[in-house]
Amino acid sequence: MPKSLSITAWISATCLASMVEEARHCLPNETGGALMGYWADRNTVVITNVIGPGPNSNHSRHSFYPDAEYHDTEIERIYTASDRLHTYLGDWHTHPNGSARTSRKDRKTLSAIASDSGARAPRPVMAILAGNKDWKLVVWSWEAKAFLWSAKVVAANVTSFD
Predict the structure, then answer these.
(1) Bigger pLDDT: 16 or 152?
(2) How many CB atoms sit inside 10 A of residue 141's CB?
């Protein structure tokens, strides 16, 4: 069972709207992308940019494979434009008609990101957007190769995911 810790994930209304728009566009298939931003402190992650799936991504009902080349290009662009402040934080994806809990595959992905020195994200996050009309966003954080914590999500200026 994941250990509980008080973590807060800040995400702008623009980023959240972009995720929901992409999710609705791809229904009933999964979609997703990458997250950029920074850790404000040990318990607060700030998501500043959401990268979509990319033009060569693959989507199905129970899986999503991003366009890695597109992600690499966008991550570099955002990193450079932010004067190296906004870094790769992890990934986001949808669970259409499902829950926002991590699957075994999701946990393996987080573990792989954490151990990949090229990702430079030893404490990666994964945002899961679940639903089909009404959407629920949960942000998970991988910690110390053993614990997975869910975060309280604070979306700026958002009262509904509709």
Answers:
(1) 16
(2) 23
- Indicate the pTM of the whole model: 0.86
CATH number at residue 24: 3.40.140.10
Query: Three-state SS for 118?
Result: coil
Task: Pick the more confident residue, 55 or 140.
Answer: 55
Q: How many separate domains does the chain show?
A: 1
Q: Residues 119-135, buried b or exposed e (16+ Cβ, 10 A)?
A: bebebbbbbbbbbeeeb
Task: Output DSSP code: residue 159.
Answer: S
The residue assigned the tokens 């869910």 is: 150
Place of tokens 């975060």: 151
Q: How far apart are CA 17 and CA 7, in angstroms?
A: 22
The pLDDT assigned to 150 comes to 65
Tokens representing 4 are 């509980």
Structural domain range at position 130: 8-155
Q: Is residue 161 part of a domain?
A: no
How many C-beta atoms surround the C-beta of residue 87 within 10 A?
18
